[in-house]
Amino acid sequence: MREDRASSAPARRWGPPHDFKWRVVSVPRGKTFADSALTALLALDEFPDAICCQMDMMAIPLVSSTIRRTADTVNLTTMRQDPYAMGRAAATKGHGSLSKAKPLENSA
Fold first, then answer.
1. Which of 70, 15, 13 is closest to 38 using CA atoms?
2. What is residue 7's predicted lDDT score, i.e. its pLDDT?
3. Are the C-beta atoms of 48 and 20 separated by less than 8 Å?
4. What are φ and ψ of residue 3, in 5° steps?
5. How many helices (H) and strands (E) does the chain have?
6. Which are the contacts of 74, defined by CB distance < 8 A and separation ≥ 6?
7. Which of 36, 73, 96, 99 could connect to 27 by a Cys-Cys bridge, CB 3.0–4.6 Å?
8. CB of 78 within 8 A of CB of 59?
9. What confidence tens digit (pLDDT) does each residue in 5-21 have?
10. Is the pTM of this model over 0.85?
11. What is the DSSP letter of 17?
12. pLDDT at residue number 95
């Protein structure tokens, strides 16, 4: 926890502390993606509380397949991202790191 410099009181944390158990499940893309992903998820010891997909085109079939095979309630949340701004920020950060780097010596 970060401490406030003006006082010794700890900074406020937003939400309860979590002990996340991250797992990456890789499945082939294509027409059978959703069924393959759900089969892999159902094979885990515990079904996850949350699932992240790269794009809605993957998430929506997975949600449909999950509802069809488990009859559980499933919620879908999407996040809008600006890939151009992300790329610009990455390039700026990389350029800043490279411009401060010490040149490599020629070992020949």
1. 70
2. 46
3. no
4. -105, 140
5. 3, 0
6. 63, 66, 67
7. 36
8. yes
9. 444 555 555 556 667 77
10. no
11. -
12. 85
